[in-house]
Amino acid sequence: MAIPQGIDIAYDDVGMGLPVVFLHGFPHNRTLWAPQLGALLSRARCIAPDLRGFGDSEIRGPYTMDRYADDIIAVMDALQIERAVIAGLSMGGYIAFALWRRHRDRVRALILSDTRPGADTDDGMAKRRQLIELARAKGSGAVADAQMAGMIGRTTRDRHTDIADAIHQMMTVAPVEGVIGALEAMIARPDSTPTLATIDVPTLIIVGEEDALTPPKEARAMHERIAGSRLEILAGAGHVSNVERPAAFNHVVSEFLGVLTYA
Ligand code: MLT
Fold it and tell me: How far is the CA of 18 from the centre of ligand 1 (A)?
């Protein structure tokens, strides 16, 4: 536990070497990254925080992408980490964009996984407002049910029900206040498309081929706009590609970290 900015942020910190900070998506928690921490700890220092309002972190607003990003910097300060690779999945990617805008000198490289740069459309905002009402009325379990369809790919749904169940359970235990706060933060987030052209650190983009929420076409568009970026599309994976195809995901991350370490 750290107490940056007077708020308790829980995190895992395992391994040695190049620091990599893993940012989970919505409505997940840091256990999303268990398949990466277990496999990558021999080659990197892996830090996985719970965003405020999720997991074991304190449930306290304000909830904004900028505030989530500042919390991550406070954790890095507490751990005396000057620069880290920032790896964000989905909402974690939205936070990575905010972190880049506000603290780019702290970013060694970026891993953008199953995410998109654009702000919400009007339709997207309306759906989030419905989810906020659902969370208030019926709790996080109902939000988990609603999110499940887009969260995993058809291969996982058909062949790996254990993974589907684990992701559903992770979303079910999310604190309602954190869920609502994150939905409001996503509604309010700016368009990060103009940010892409400013990214001048090594960037790895990963997407599940079956990702319906942030599909490969989003990843290809990011790849075109981030100079020198590398794009990896993982077959048989949906939106949580790091959990659905952990070995493939870890392989591309490992290769990327290897190049950074020895560059
Ligand atoms: C996520 O996985 O973080 C969410 O699906 C992102 C979103 O709803 O935009």
Answer: 27
Q: How does 100-137 read in b/e, with b if 16+ C-beta sit within 10 Å?
A: bbebeebbbbbbbbbbbbebeeeeeeeebeebbebbee
Which residues pair with residue 46 across a beta bridge? 14, 20
Residue 235: CB atoms within 10 A of its CB come to 11
CB atoms within 10 A of CB 203: 23
Q: What single-letter amino acid sits at 138? A: K
DSSP string computed for 73-107: HHHHHHTT-S-EEEEEETHHHHHHHHHHHHHGGGE
CA of 240, closest atom in ligand 1: 2
Residue 219 backbone dihedrals phi, psi, to 5 degrees? -65, -40
Cα 224 to Cα 64: distance, rounded to the nearest angstrom:
28
Pairing of strands 44-49, 230-234: unpaired
CA of 263 to the centre of ligand 1 (A): 33
The residues that bridge with 207 in the sheet, in sequence order, are 233
Which ligand 1 atom is at minimum distance from the Cα of 120? 9
Q: What are the pLDDT digits (tens) for 4-21?
A: 557 999 999 999 999 999
Chain-wide mean pLDDT for the chain?
A: 96
Q: What is the pTM of this model?
A: 0.97
**Ligand 1 centre and the CA of 188: distance in Å?**
14
- Model confidence band, residue 3 (pLDDT cutoffs 50, 70, 90): low
Interior CA angle at 32 toward 27 and 33, to 5°? Answer: 140
Tell me: the pLDDT tens digits for 35-74? 999 999 999 999 999 999 999 999 999 999 999 999 999 9
